[in-house]
C-alpha cells in the first residue's frame, strides 16, 4: 500500500498519456526514452524487464549493474480529469447547474493507470549472465457513472485494478549467435474494486483514491509465473540482433471484491536492433493484441521505434515513437518520447518523458553500471 497510493495519486493528478488501453508495459527509463523498445536493444540494467535473453547478448564491456527506478503512466480518455476538476470547483462554489453539467460530461469516460517501482542487480560474463530483480506495479482502470439525482453529486467513479509484486531470478546463456533467457518469478497480487461518490468527505482526488484503494482491497496471496526470451545475432560480427520475448507465460485469473474478473495474461513482443558503439536503433512490435484490464476498454498492439546516441560513453541522448496499431476508436495514439542518460565513473542516471501534445508520463532511474 505504501507504493500504491503515491503511484495512483501522481498519475491521476499530474501525468497522462492520450491513449486508449494499457500497453505492453515498460518498467525503466532507457526503454521509455526509446519509445518502449528493448527486446533486441536492452542493456544489462533493463534486460530483465525487456527480454532476459539480452543479458547474455551484450556487445559492450558492462558486466555489472545495480539500478532502481520509478515510472508513472496515466491514460486520460477524453479529458476526464478536467471534468472532475470542473465538478469539484462547481461543488465548492455551490454551483448546482455546473455540478450537474460536469458530472454529465464525465459519464462513461475512463482513466487508466500504470505505475511501478523496480530494482535490479545484473551481471554478464562471457557466456552466462543473470539478474535478480524486484518489481512492484499497479494497473488500474477507473470510470465515471453519471447519476442525475442531486445535481450529479451522487455520480460515482468506479475503480478496478491489480497491484502485483514480482521477485524474479533471470538466467541467460549464449550459444553461438543465439542467446536464451528465462526468468521464473513469484507474484503477490492484490486487487481493488470500488465505487466511490465523486465528492463525499474528500478535499481532493487524492483522498478519493485513498478511499477507493482501502474499500475495495482484496489480497490474493502469492503465485508463480515466468518470462522467456530469445535473441539471434544476424552474423558472426554483425551489430544487428533480432529478439522475441513472452512475458507472463501462465495466465492468472482473479476475482475482485466486487465479483469482477481481472487477469494477468501472456504478452509477446518481437524486436530488431542495431547495437553500435555510437548509435543504437531499435524497432519492437507486439505479436498479439493486449486486452485491457477489464471489459469495456480498448485493446493495444504497439509498434515502437527508438534511437540512442552515445557521446563518449558518458552522455546518452534518446528519442522514440510508439503507435497503437489495434483497430480501436479513440483519440490520437501517436506517442513521442525523449530520454537522457548520464554515466560518470560508473554512476548512472536516466530520465525519460513520453506522450503527445498535451500529455506526459515520466520515468527516472539511478544506479551503478560498469
Automatic annotation (TrEMBL):
Residues 1-21 form the signal peptide. It comes from the Bacteria. Keywords: Signal. The keyword Signal applies. This is F plasmid transfer operon protein TraF. It comes from Thiohalophilus thiocyanatoxydans. The lineage of its organism: Bacteria, Pseudomonadati, Pseudomonadota, Gammaproteobacteria, Thiohalomonadales.
